[in-house]
Fold:
Amino acid sequence: MNKVILMGRLTKDPETRYYQGEEPMGIARYTLAVDRRGAKNSDGQSADFIRCIAFRKNAEFAEKYFRKGIKIAITGRIQTSSYTDRYGNLAYSTEVVVEEQEFAESKSHSQRREYETEGAWNPCPAYGDRFIDIPEGIDEELPFN
Structure:
């Protein structure tokens, strides 16, 4: 069985191309940075960078909604291929062919993360922890007393 499930962040916006022919289709390519659990590798990285390719509707969806830094989850299959590069050397390629893809975090969480990394996020002091105070005297109306 060849089945892959990944969750990670896009390293850049997807690159999408449309091919015309008997069966016109879109092809989107993107790279996911997938966190590793445990120690860093010899390069000091704690993530793997996995190339993905999406076809047809998945490609159109990726082009329309996916942007650098968002967290997504995909399922698909590993595909390997070989080719001769421009110097005449045999080269190998491995990528994940996307069968399903979806957002792995809410849009507001993604935007908040974007602001935090840019240093511009400053939540309103009254709602900084996302909790609000319950007014006094409302105890009788709460369903979980």
Remarks:
- The chain has one domain: 4-122.
- Residues 121-128 have pLDDT under 50 and may be disordered.
- Strands lie at 4-10, 15-19, 25-35, 47-55, 71-84, 90-103.
